[in-house]
Write a structure and sequence with these properties.
Order of helices and strands: EHEHHHEHEHEEEHHEH
Number of strands: 8
Number of domains: 1
Bound molecules: BIS(adenosine)-5'-pentaphosphate
Distance between the termini: 13 Å
Strand content: 15-25%
CATH class: Alpha Beta
Largest sheet: 5 strands, parallel
Shape: globular
CATH topology: Rossmann fold
Oligomer: single chain
Number of helices: 9
Structural class: alpha/beta
Helix content: 40-55%
Strand order of the largest sheet: 2-3-1-4-8
C-alpha cells in the first residue's frame, strides 16, 4: 500500500531539512514543489519564468500552475509507492486536488507532520540559510554549517542564498503562509492526520519525534 506524508509548516520551519533525512528512513521519494520551481527557474523553462515573479515577491504561484506541475510529477512511476510531500499542498484547493490524485493510486494522505516555530526563529533560520546549487541540500551558517564554507558537503557544488530569503520577502512569505496555508492545519486536524512538532528544537530532536510518528503509523 503506498504511503503519503505531507510536511506542513511555515517557511524556515525545517520541512526540507527533515524531508531529506526521511528519504533514507522511509525509502519514499521526496517531492518539493519549491525545488521543482527552482529547477525550472534555473533552466529558464516557461514554467520557471512564470513562477519566478511570484516566488521573488514571496507570493504563491497560482493554484492552476502549481497543480498542473504536481500532476505532471505524479504521472511518473516513482510516486506510485508513496511520497514525502514538502511545500504541497499549500492551499485548500491544492489539498482537495491531492486527495483526488491519491485516490488514483489507491492511496491517501497518511500523516501530516506540522513543524512549527516562532516568527523570530523562522527569520533567523532563513537569514542564515545556504542551499547547494546542484541538489538543494540545505545548510545554516550557525545551526548547520558546511564543513567548507561556500561548498556542499555532499556533492561539492557551490552554496548560494535564495533570492526569496531577503528579510522583506521572508516577512511577506510568513504573512502569505498565515493567510493561505495555515487553514490546512484545521483541515488535516479534522481528518485526524496532523501531529504538531516543535520545530524550534535542534534538527536531531525534530527527526526523533518525526521518526516516532512514522513508526506509530507503521510507515517505517
Ligand atoms: P518552498 O521552497 O517550499 O519554501 P518554504 O515553504 O517557504 O519553505 P522553505 O524551503 O523556506 O523552508 P523549510 O521549512 O523547508 O526550511 P529548511 O529545512 O530549508 O517555496 C518557495 C516558494 O515557491 C513559495 O514562497 C512560493 O512562491 C512557491 N511555492 C512552492 N510551493 C508552492 C505551492 N504549493 N503553491 C504555490 N506556490 C508554491 O530550513 C531553513 C533553515 O533552517 C536552513 O538553513 C536549515 O539548515 C535550518 N534549520 C532547519 N531545521 C533546523 C533546526 N531544527 N534547528 C536549527 N536550524 C534548522
Amino acid at each position: 500500500m503506498p504511503r503519503y506524508i505531507v510536511l506542513l509548516g511555515p517557511p524556515g520551519a525545517g520541512k526540507g531539512t527533515q524531508a531529506k533525512l526521511m528519504i533514507e528512513k522511509t525509502g519514499l521519494v521526496h517531492i518539493s514543489s519549491g525545488d521543482i520551481f527552482r529547477e525550472n527557474i534555473k533552466n529558464q523553462t516557461e514554467l520557471g519564468q512564470l513562477a519566478q515573479a511570484f516566488i521573488n515577491k514571496g507570493e504563491l504561484v497560482p493554484d492552476d500552475v502549481t497543480i498542473a506541475m504536481i500532476q505532471e510529477r505524479f504521472s511518473r512511476p516513482d510516486c506510485a509507492q508513496g511520497a514525502i510531500l514538502d511545500g504541497f499542498p499549500r492551499t485548500k484547493a491544492q489539498a482537495e486536488v491531492l486527495e483526488k490524485m491519491l485516490e488514483g493510486f489507491d492511496g491517501q494522505v497518511d500523516l501530516v507532520p506540522f513543524i512549527t516555530a516562532s516568527e523570530e526563529v523562522l527569520v533567523e533560520r532563513l537569514g542564515g540559510r545556504w542551499s547547494c546549487r546542484s541538489q538543494g541540500h540545505v545548510y545554516h551558517e550557525k545551526f548547520n554549517p558546511p564543513k567548507r564554507s561556500g561548498s556542499c558537503d555532499l556533492d561539492g557544488s557551490e552554496l548560494y542564498q535564495r533570492e526569496d530569503d531577503k528579510a522583506e520577502t521572508v516577512k511577506r512569505r510568513i504573512l502569505v503562509y498565515m493567510k493561505d496555508t495555515s487553514p490546512l492545519i484545521a483541515f488535516y486536524t479534522r481528518q485526524g492526520k496532523l501531529i504538531k512538532i516543535d520545530g524550534a528544537q535542534p534538527i536531531e530532536q525534530v527527526t526523533e519525534v518525526l521518526v516516532d510518528a512514522l513508526k506509530s503509523k507503521k510507515i517505517i
